[in-house]
């Protein structure tokens, strides 16, 4: 759908056309390679890995605020490996344990208090200024 939307927006390059025509079950590596080629043909650069993780963290926080994801999803994505810079990112990350069973041990909070603080931190993160384009 991203490729179709890019074509509709006027990014008419060979790679965008190829990407739009790939089947849903196409090899993930082929999709990524074609996507990167389409971006390059359009003059759009990919963010470095660290910035991309920060963007993803902000999107995860937004999904948590909107009720579109579960708290358990946070611990399965290895967010604790993400390098953060802003105070809002740090406050949110400080509440994400490495595993679901370690919430009380790593945060010092009971589950109900942790969930409330995590949702508040997610709201603060999503309300903070974006770290760059795409957030």
Automatic annotation (TrEMBL):
Query: What name does UniProt use for this protein?
Result: Uncharacterized protein
Q: Whose protein is this, by species? A: Streptomyces chrestomyceticus JCM 4735
| Phylogenetic placement of the source organism | Bacteria, Bacillati, Actinomycetota, Actinomycetes, Kitasatosporales
């Amino acid at each position: 759908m991203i490729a179709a939307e890019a074509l509709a927006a006027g990014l008419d390059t060979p790679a965008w056309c190829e990407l739009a025509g790939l089947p849903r079950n196409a090899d993930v590596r082929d999709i990524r390679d074609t996507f990167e080629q389409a971006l390059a043909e359009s003059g759009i650069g990919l963010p470095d890995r660290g910035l991309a993780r920060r963007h993803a963290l902000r999107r995860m926080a937004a999904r948590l605020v909107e009720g579109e994801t579960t708290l358990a999803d946070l611990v399965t994505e290895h967010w604790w490996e993400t390098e953060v810079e802003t105070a809002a990112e740090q406050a949110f990350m400080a509440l994400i344990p490495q595993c679901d069973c370690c919430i009380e041990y790593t945060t010092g909070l009971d589950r109900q208090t942790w969930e409330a603080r995590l949702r508040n931190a997610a709201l603060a993160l999503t309300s903070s200024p974006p770290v760059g384009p795409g957030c």
